[in-house]
Amino acid sequence: MLKIMKTCIIIPNYNGNHFLEKCMLALENQSKHDFSILFVDNDSKDESIKSIKSYMEKEPERVLLIENEENYGFAKAVNQGILFAKEAGARYALLLNNDTEVDPFFVEKLVEFMEEREAKGEKVFALSSKMVKMHDPRLMDDAGDELCVLGFPFQRGLEDSEKNWNTPEEVFSACAGAALYSIDALEKTGLFDEKHFAYLEDVDISFRAQLYGYKIYFCPKAVCKHVGSGTSGGKYSNFKVELSARNSVFLLYKNFPLFLKVLNFIPFLLGFCIKAIYFQKKGYGKAYRKGLRTGFRERKTMKQADFRGIPLSRYLRIEARLIRNCFVYLEERKRRKRLKL
Predict the structure, then answer these.
(1) 233 pLDDT above the threshold of 60
(2) How many Cα atoms within 13 Å fall on the side-chain side of residue 82?
(3) Where are the alpha helices (DSSP H) in the chain?
(4) Helix (H, G, I), strand (E, B) or coil at 128
(5) 3-class DSSP state for residue 81?
(6) Fewer CB within 10 Å, N side or C side of the chain?
(7) pLDDT attached to residue 310
(8) Topology given in CATH for the domain delimited by 7-226
(9) Residue range 78-106: average pLDDT?
(10) What would the mean pLDDT of 232-245 be, rounded to a whole number?
(11) Rg, C-alpha atoms of the chain
């Protein structure tokens, strides 16, 4: 019988057996063990189930497995985990990719940061960890995500020196590859949108949290090594580009009220054109265009955020941030180009 503790670590898995040993070893070496581990397997065809069951035999009170009969994607898998954790009485859901290796103080520092903020009366939705490259931990992978008014989500600090990212600060979105979420807050925002399947679902739910007045922080003391695209197979693929394009349309349609859609029509259009040219050069133009067509065709099937009662000042703060993030995005691009010279 699983003993759910204050924090439930939810690890979605699909054919990730080759990652599990390193991931689990890091969790076994945590400074504190007041957490349970819930694997949600999306019908893996490798040896994942066998490996997970071996961990369950070692720690039957702390490790559990939900086995799906098909690949439901990231969003539904983590929702299954969150609902299980909620029913069992957990306060926090820590979403963790299987291709990660966390620092010994990872869980402790995330929970400590969250509780400190909550004690101050803040409405905190999520904490994004300090994700560094698995192949070179001196380099950043993600310090929380941002969104600009062109409709581009982007990773903060990507490929920068990890030494430059040690300051806690508010971010637009937590990266769900290694992030702590308040289960109470998730009750208010709703869970991850399962129609996304995978990609941008974390930015989508974070946008909704921003609209509802929650804060999201980057917690630099919680360090995590990350392979990146370990399940989907690399930085770009037709599958990833198509789904990301479709979900980018869903993201904008669901979270912007009509007046902001009208206000931002030109920036949105410009953003789609820039991405179309970029992916055409990369050899994924067809996949990107297909994703956009699907997104526009299916957008009205998506459930929009509840815009009732949201003060105008909050919309304006979010809009100002998205405009400012265009310049942040450009600076990030310039920095990465300089690194390649």
Answers:
(1) no
(2) 25
(3) 17-28, 48-58, 73-88, 106-119, 183-189, 201-211, 238-255, 258-263, 265-282, 285-298, 312-340
(4) strand
(5) helix
(6) C
(7) 97
(8) Spore Coat Polysaccharide Biosynthesis Protein SpsA; Chain A (3.90.550)
(9) 97
(10) 82
(11) 19
Half-sphere exposure of 178 (CA within 13 A, CB side): 31
- Number of residues that make up the chain: 341
3-class DSSP state of 69: coil
What number of other Cβ atoms are within 10 A of residue 126's Cβ? 31
The count of C-alpha atoms lying within 13 angstroms of the C-alpha of 325, restricted to the half-sphere facing its C-beta, is 22
Nearest to residue 85, comparing CAs of 212, 196, 181, 15?
181
End-to-end CA distance of the chain: 55
What's the whole-number mean pLDDT along residues 138-163?
A: 95
Both tokens assigned to 184? 């109470």
Q: How far is CA 112 from the centre of its chain?
A: 20
pLDDT for 89 beyond 50: yes
Structure tokens at 282: 């990369």
Contact criterion met (CB below 8 Å) for 52 and 175: no
Closest among 67, 123, 106 to 221, alpha carbons compared: 106
Residue type, 323: I
Instruction: Give the separation between CA 242 and CA 200, rounded to whole angstroms.
Output: 12
Which pair of structure tokens corresponds to residue 68? 């799906």
pLDDT in tens, 287-310: 999 999 999 999 999 999 999 999
**Cα–chain center distance at 31:** 24
Rounded CA-CA distance 280/296 in Å is: 19
pLDDT for 320 beyond 50: yes
Nearest to 20 by CA among 118, 94, 133, 100: 100
pLDDT tier, 230 (very low <50, low <70, confident <90, very high otherwise): very low
| Single-letter code of the amino acid located at 275 | K
Task: In whole angstroms, give the CA distance from residue 295 to residue 252.
Answer: 10
Domain boundaries, the chain: 7-226
The amino acid that residue 316 corresponds to is: L
| Residue owning tokens 């995005």 | 329
Q: What gap in Å lies between CA 302 and CA 272, rounded to an integer?
A: 20
Determine if the pTM surpasses 0.90: yes
Helix (H) or strand (E) holding 116: helix 106-119
3-state secondary structure of 1: coil
